[in-house]
Model the fold of this input.
Amino acid sequence: MKSPVVKRSIVVAGHKTSVSLEEAFWNGMKEISGLRDMTLSELVGEIDSNRQQGNLSSAIRLFVLDYFRTRAAYAPPDSKPPA
Done:
């Protein structure tokens, strides 16, 4: 059985590191970075510099979760998610 966690290398603040995330979180990161007109590396660097504790993978998961929770909270009440 294939693991749902995908490990990828990324450059953060000029240093190469690897991050293990589920594919859904990678897709969320791509969406957020695209909306912010920044690269994945730039977004991960921002998350890394703002994290208080824990490892980078956990910080990314929490960031993506918070981003989409916040977005959902401000969605119009009658809006429906795409099918």
The mean pLDDT is 89. DSSP finds three helices and two strands in the chain.
